[in-house]
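Hi R.,

Here's the input for the zinc ion complex you asked about:
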Amino acid sequence: MARRAQPERTCVGCRRRAPASDLLRIVAVEEEADLSLRPDPARRLPGRGANMHPDPACFAQALQRRAFGRALRVAGVPRDEALAEYLTRQPPRPVNRPGEGR
Ligand SMILES: [Zn+2]
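And here is the predicted structure with zinc ion in place:
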């Protein structure tokens, strides 16, 4: 049947395709002449984005293959501290906590 297909993206870490809503958008932001990876969970930041599972395992794979520079079309290897910190604060899977939210 003609189910409306969700947009799919490829994770830069494990290279598996997944619905865009399951992946974290990542952009490179210029910071004092350095490029820095930034998570963009709202998918609102301008520019080219890379997509990755919000999973430290995928992050490690992406770093190993230097996939971010390629996916974001930037020269060299962008700094990843901000993104690494974001991932350590993320639960592996989003949990719905009733009674929370603004
Ligand atoms: Zn992945």
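One thing worth noting: Helices lie at 56-64, 67-71, 81-89.

Cheers,
M.
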